[in-house]
């Protein structure tokens, strides 16, 4: 079956759309105007991509963020700018709430007719890796996004321009790249649905032994095709993806529980504690014990 990318419909009379949700990413509202909304089924709970750029703010919730080849924990206040065709997915723990702005200003769009917008080309290219915003930049952008849902027309457009200006002027320490590489997936992907199934399976079973044969049956792919497409869509091999999932789970446990490092490593799906310790130190640049002490302090 041919599966297309997510197709986003911008409301009539608008050049971008503003979304909000208050319980789950599956139940989203498009804010067309103050007091006027359209209910949508959100796609943020599955591995997907779209042509539009996206700026997403989590006002509530926590979980694991997947952006390109990046896997990391997030919590309330998380603010990320995504470039066009960049695969992404938020695996939330419990309820969540937030705002999202989506737009598509490709080459030839009237947006670029204004010479003042030309410096933003570099920002849009960098967003192809995903950019996490923090500090004063995140606070200012978050405030502007909150204003967007209470205005319309030129006022709302002016807020988007101010948002882009703030992000463009942000210091590098408050605008951190997430994915090590950019992605250029085709506008339509034959394999997107199958890869999404694989990712959901890995999230549900990473604490156990994951058999490649089971994943191949689930996706209906041959071993070479799966290996090629999984790396193309996620930026990682299956084993690398699994190890990052397990490491994120272990990091949460280290902060939230008093279980021993051995118990946490085994409970997160690692079979060799020595490998867990080496991987942890390589990716977190400290030992599990040091990580626990630093995060709790």
TrEMBL record:
Every copy of the HTH araC/xylS-type domain together lies at 196-294
Matching Pfam families = HTH_18
Question: Is the keyword Transcription in the record?
Answer: yes
Q: Which UniProt keywords apply?
A: DNA-binding, Transcription, Transcription regulation
Whether Transcription counts among this entry's keywords is: yes
InterPro entries recorded: Homeodomain-like_sf (IPR009057), HTH_AraC (IPR018060), HTH_AraC-typ_CS (IPR018062), RmlC-like_jellyroll (IPR014710), RmlC_Cupin_sf (IPR011051)
Source organism superkingdom:
Bacteria
Task: Identify the SUPFAM superfamilies for this entry.
Answer: Homeodomain-like, RmlC-like cupins
One MF term in the entry's GO annotations? DNA-binding transcription factor activity
Q: Where is the signal peptide?
A: none
PANTHER family registered for this protein in UniProt: ARAC-FAMILY TRANSCRIPTIONAL REGULATOR (PTHR43280), TRANSCRIPTIONAL REGULATOR MTLR (PTHR43280:SF27)
This one is known as AraC family transcriptional regulator
Please tell me the species this chain comes from.
Brevifollis gellanilyticus
């Amino acid at each position: 079956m041919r599966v297309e990318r997510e197709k986003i419909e911008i409301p009539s009379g608008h050049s971008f759309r503003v979304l909000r949700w208050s319980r789950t990413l599956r139940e989203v509202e498009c804010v067309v105007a103050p007091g006027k909304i359209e209910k949508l089924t959100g796609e943020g709970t599955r591995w997907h991509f779209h042509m539009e750029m996206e700026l997403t703010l989590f006002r509530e919730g926590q979980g694991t963020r997947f952006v390109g080849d990046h896997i990391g924990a997030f919590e309330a206040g998380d603010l990320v700018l995504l470039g066009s065709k960049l695969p992404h997915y938020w695996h939330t723990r419990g309820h969540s709430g937030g705002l999202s702005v989506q737009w598509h200003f490709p080459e030839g769009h009237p947006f670029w007719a204004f010479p003042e917008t030309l410096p933003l080309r570099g920002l849009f290219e960098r967003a192809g890796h995903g950019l996490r915003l923090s500090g004063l930049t995140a606070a200012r952008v978050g405030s502007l996004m909150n204003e967007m849902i209470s205005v319309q027309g030129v006022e709302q457009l002016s807020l988007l321009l101010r948002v882009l200006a703030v992000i463009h002027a942000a210091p590098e320490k408050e605008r951190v790249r997430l994915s090590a590489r950019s992605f250029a997936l085709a506008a339509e992907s034959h394999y997107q649905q199958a890869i999404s199934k694989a990712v959901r399976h890995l999230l549900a079973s990473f604490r156990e032994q994951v058999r490649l044969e089971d994943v191949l049956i689930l996706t209906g792919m041959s071993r070479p095709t799966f290996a090629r497409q999984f790396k193309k869509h996620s930026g990682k091999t299956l084993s690398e993806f699994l190890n990052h999932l397990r490491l994120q789970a272990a990091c949460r446990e280290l902060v939230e529980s008093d279980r021993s490092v051995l118990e946490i490593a085994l409970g997160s799906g690692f079979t060799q504690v020595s490998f867990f310790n080496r991987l942890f130190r390589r990716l977190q640049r400290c030992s599990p014990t040091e990580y626990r002490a630093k995060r709790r302090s």
